[in-house]
Specification:
By secondary structure, this protein is α/β, with parallel strands linked by helices. Helix content is 57%, strand content 11%. Helix 1 crosses helix 10 (193-209) and helix 7 packs across helix 8 (150-172).
Length: 210
């Protein structure tokens, strides 16, 4: 279990179907630290006053019209965020960024997605990871997980990767998946989920000792 004054944070960006989420879970379990992915939605909902459902459905979808966002909030929100005059996509991002900073200030954790590498840029004791995998590996994983055809899996991969890339660029002005934006870029198809997680956990232990 990692115990330190300045908590260790591992951020994980990942291509859809690469296994990045599973890798993050295993790294957190191995190191005995917290894991945040979908739980961030609940925490952001508490900060913003929006519902979990609304944030889950809209956090990576860039909306352009203020009135469109405002109308949607009437359906999904239990109350307005303090930045109610911002488009809701911005409100969601601000809420998630606040949650991520709060986590990094109090505990060691693995944080998946949501531009966490950018939000915590310049922070000591942070390892920013991007997980990718060959297209065939990703297609096979998505087909097995969601009982999809090959064509359906390819469409899901293309749609999700596009949404993630657009979301990342919108809030960071950087290219999603570009090696220079991360400390480690790793092909999860090379060694598989468990061995990749083991390697990242070992790397984190070295960082802690450094």
């Amino acid at each position: 279990v990692i115990n330190m004054r300045n908590p260790l944070i591992i951020t994980i960006g990942r291509e859809y179907g690469s296994g990045g989420r599973e890798i993050g879970e295993l790294v957190a379990k191995t190191l005995g630290i917290a894991y945040y992915d979908k739980k961030l939605i609940t925490l952001a909902a508490q900060k913003s006053g929006l519902s979990d459902e609304f944030i889950a459905n809209n956090e990576q979808r860039v909306r352009s019209g203020f009135m469109q966002n405002l109308a949607a909030s009437a359906v999904y929100s239990s109350g307005f965020f303090s930045s109610q005059y911002l488009p809701l996509s911005e409100s969601i991002f601000i809420s998630e960024a606040q949650v991520i900073r709060d986590i990094a200030a109090k505990e060691s954790a693995v944080i998946v997605g949501r531009c966490a590498d950018y939000i915590l840029a310049g922070r000591d004791n942070t390892i920013n990871v991007f997980v990718y995998a060959p297209r065939d590996v990703r297609v096979n994983r998505i087909m097995a997980r969601h009982n999809m055809s090959e064509a359906e899996a390819l469409k899901a991969i293309n749609t999700s990767d596009k949404e993630r890339g657009n979301h990342y660029f919108r809030y960071t002005d950087q290219k999603w998946g570009k090696a220079q934006n991360y400390d480690v870029c790793i092909n999860a198809g090379l060694m598989g989920i468990e061995k990749t997680a083991e390697m990242l956990a070992d790397m984190a232990k070295i960082e802690v000792r450094a």
